[in-house]
Amino acid sequence: MTRGIFISFEGGEGAGKSTQIRKLADRLTALGSDVVLTREPGGSPGGEVIREILLNGAADRWSPVTETLLMYAARRDHIERIIRPALDRGAIVLCDRFADSTRAYQGAGGEAPASLIAALEEHILGGTRPLLTLIFDLPAELGLARAISRGGEARFESKGLEFHDRLRAGFLEIARREPERCEVIQADAPIDQVAQAVWDVVSTRLDL
Fold this sequence. Notes:
Elements: E1 5-11, H1 17-30, E2 35-39, H2 45-55, H3 64-88, E3 92-96, H4 99-109, H5 114-125, E4 132-137, H6 140-149, H7 154-157, H8 161-177, E5 182-186, H9 191-205
Parallel strand pairs: 1-3, 1-4, 2-3, 4-5
Helix pairs in contact: 1-9, 2-3, 3-4, 3-5, 4-8
């Protein structure tokens, strides 16, 4: 059996990745692909419980290190129960956030130790890593304005512009370091234009 394809969608608040991941899922499903659409934190029943803990409450409810550990607890359950079984049966897994979000939010944004995040990646992810990562980029102030206008996940939004500028830089640094895996999508364009850019990258890179 052919192993599946793992694609992650990354970016800051209000970047539009959740809209775009659904559009890609619909397009791939229409072509006859077995598509699993999932998200982090969450994705599995256990992961969703941890998601509620992480995304609610005051901005300083958890330290960056504690957030990192919670993220990886949720991620491990998600990998074991959802992602690996789907890949093993040959599905295309589209994940709204994955390990790069921990690097950006808790690492670049929150300044959790890079050594801790790297160790968790090694021991928790194993070989379960995206073949392709799309990083949706736009100025932090624009993304925050979008997210606040739609009533988004207020705990991370309330961390302030300086935090969001750092995490944007963190995502772009990941893309710079891993160009073979990552593709930056300019997220300040109209929705349909962004969707076409996503399809161009996915269809070219994965020969779909």
